[in-house]
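Our consortium's second objective concerns turning raw sequence data into structural hypotheses that experimental partners can test. To show how far this objective has progressed, the report includes one record in full. It was chosen at random from the queue rather than selected for favorable results. The single chain below, 92 residues long, was entered without modification.
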Amino acid sequence: MKTATLPPLRVAPELRQAAEAVLREGESLSSFMEQSLRDEVNRRRLQAEFIARGLASREEAKRTGVYYDADTVHAELREMLAEAEAKAKTKA
């Protein structure tokens, strides 16, 4: 696969120093920047998908007239968490 370059990035010296200070062993500033960019792209994709699901859910509720109150949703989530924790304990 052919690679591409990104525009040069000018930052305050303090930001560069802060970035260099958190580099892991064997990690270059370039690889840190690339991974940071990948992580942010992924975070924004996930955020956009989350918003899209929320908007679709809102439209479905408007269409059907079926709404759930927060207490009901929280109770269901607590139950799902408890089941997952119990399942994880039996596997450990």
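The partners drew two points from this record. The mean pLDDT is 96. Residues 25-91 form one domain. Both points have been shared with the crystallography group to help prioritize constructs.
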